[in-house]
Design brief:
It is built from 5 helices and 10 strands; from the N terminus they run βββααβαβαββββαβ. Helix 1 crosses helix 2. It has helices at 32-38, 43-58, 68-72, 94-107, 168-174; strands spanning 6-9, 14-17, 22-24, 62-66, 80-87, 111-120, 123-132, 139-148, 152-160, 178-179. Strand 1 (6-9) and strand 2 form a beta hairpin. It is of the alpha+beta class. The longest helix has 16 residues, at 43-58. It is globular, with a radius of gyration of 16 Å. The strands form 2 sheets. It has a 7-stranded antiparallel sheet, sandwiched between helices. It has a 3-stranded antiparallel sheet with strand order 1-2-10, with no helix packed on it.
Length: 180
């Protein structure tokens, strides 16, 4: 059998396995809306993609959507993942990264922030869950913060709806992290 497709790589600082049914969106496409529409996102969601993509693209990151989730969620939201690394160590160690991520998320208005130390792949990480009310509907996030190669701070973030109770699937995807 063919190896699973990976999302990310050397430009990002890490990669993950792209789950079945998920589609990578090209953050460098000339027409981001057309790319999102071609991936199967409804018009309303495709129109929001350029706002999200710019910052992640600037960091050399990746973005993918669980296209079938749009049907489950009435066309109003697509479960998605993004990942990127930034130069420098934003904390002294993973335990300190726990406080840093909490502070950053609360600083942008996140509520119900909960953190725990974990391992993804072979990498120590902080797992953070939170609710964020920006845009037309609240978003439930599951973020993993960890240190990459060459003194980078890396972030893998899944976004879903507050009604989504199957957050364990994000843990399974995060467990495929490989540093580049």
């Amino acid at each position: 059998p063919a190896a699973p497709e990976r999302l990310g790589g050397a430009d990002t600082g890490f990669s993950i396995e792209l789950p079945d049914g998920w589609v990578r969106l090209d953050l460098t496409a000339d027409d981001l809306v057309a790319d999102a529409l071609a991936a199967g996102l409804p018009d309303e969601l495709a129109e929001t993609f350029p706002q999200i993509a710019g910052q992640i693209a600037d960091l050399g990151g990746f973005f993918a959507v669980d296209v079938p989730s749009t049907n489950r969620l009435g066309g109003r939201f697509a479960v998605n993942v993004n990942g990127y690394c930034v130069p420098g160590m934003l904390a002294d160690d993973v335990a300190s990264m726990e406080g840093f991520t909490r502070q950053q998320l609360e600083g942008v208005g996140a509520t119900d922030v909960a953190t725990s130390l974990t391992t993804i792949g072979t990498t120590d990480a902080v797992r953070v869950t939170y609710l964020l009310s920006t845009g037309p509907r609240p978003v439930q996030g599951v973020q993993f913060a960890f240190f990459g190669a060459g003194e980078q701070s890396c972030f893998l973030t899944f976004s879903t709806t507050p009604e989504d109770e199957d957050l364990a699937r994000f843990d399974a995807i995060a467990d495929t992290v490989q540093l580049s």
